[in-house]
Structures are given as C-alpha cells and as structure tokens.
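Quick one, tokens below:
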C-alpha cells in the first residue's frame, strides 16, 4: 500500500510502502452501548475481562453476591424456545446475567447465575426466549464477600437453543388403568432445521 498526495499546483508525491496494523480492542464491549452482537441459535465467544469496568446504573448485584469487570453482548432470539447460556471453560469466577431493555440503568433481569449447580466458578442460565425479543447478556467477575476486586481472566461464553419436544396428548394429569394402551402425540422442533 502506498499513498499519493497531490498539492494545489498538481505536484504529486508518493510514499514508500505503508504498513497497516489493525488492532482489535478486547474491551470494546465494556460499556453497554458498545455491546457486541451474537446471532443465530448458537454462538461461542472467547474473550477476557481483564481491565473491564462497570458503569453508573449497571446491574452489579447486592448483599453477598456482587460482580464487576463486565462485558456486554446482545442477542435476538431467532425462534421461540429454551435458551442455555454458560461460561463453561472460563478460568475465573464468572457472573452471567440476561436482561431486556435498551438502557443500562433501566434493564429488566430475566435470569442471573453465579455458580452453575454443582460447579464452582462457572455460570449457567436457561430461560424461555421469545422470537424477535432482544436480550442483553452481561458477563462479569464475582467480587469477594463484602466487595473487593472483581475476578478477571479469560472466559468462554456459550449460547445454545437445543431442540425441544412438547407432548400434546394425552393431556396433563390424565389417568390410565394399568396395562391399558394409549397413544402419545408430540411436537418436535429445532432452531437448527427439521427434526426427523
């Protein structure tokens, strides 16, 4: 790559080869207004929250569970269905929150988790998403009891909409005699394509 400059008298000057360096800011999504977009029925993102902050009005917990050093993502549900988001594979004590809303100081919490059941330092949330609804996803580090510096490190954020099966017949709370035959009807769906 080189540049050619022309002055007002028509004289031209060329530069030697120019090296261009592109730098990705790993904290580009530190503030809510700069959240990164996830798309589709599944997504996997790696990053680090080292150097991340919190901003005024941002959800940061209360009581014994407080978090900080947060990064933001936004995701719009492509279909109705169950969503699973986790931080499995992260190397620090993560927090994971999902919200609706468009301003950091007036978000509505959908779900939050500090430690996945039976596991320490990783988070897992599930919720029923509505097609076309935009969800704000906050990944952060847990602070020690009564404050302190939030945990930081490398994280892995995983989002999945697994296939689902809904039994449509018999109706809930139906009773059958022991040994009786009955038919079961179900609907199966997947955001990833047809279920066969």
């Amino acid at each position: 790559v080189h540049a050619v400059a022309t002055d007002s008298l028509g004289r031209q000057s060329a530069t030697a080869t120019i090296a261009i360096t592109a730098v990705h800011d790993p904290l580009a999504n530190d503030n809510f207004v700069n959240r990164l977009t996830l798309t589709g029925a599944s997504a996997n993102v790696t990053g680090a929250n080292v150097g991340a902050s919190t901003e005024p009005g941002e959800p940061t917990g209360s009581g014994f569970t407080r978090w900080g050093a947060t990064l933001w993502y936004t995701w719009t549900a492509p279909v109705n269905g169950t969503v699973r988001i986790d931080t499995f594979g992260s190397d620090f004590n993560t927090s994971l929150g999902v919200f609706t809303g468009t301003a950091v100081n007036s978000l509505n919490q959908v779900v939050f988790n500090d430690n996945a059941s039976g596991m320490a330092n990783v988070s897992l949330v599930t919720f029923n998403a509505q097609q076309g609804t935009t969800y704000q996803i906050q990944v952060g580090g847990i602070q020690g009891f009564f404050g302190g510096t939030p945990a930081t490190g490398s994280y892995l954020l995983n989002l999945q909409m697994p296939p689902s099966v809904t039994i449509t017949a018999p109706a809930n709370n139906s009773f059958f005699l022991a040994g009786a035959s009955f038919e079961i009807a179900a609907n199966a769906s997947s955001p990833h394509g047809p279920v066969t």
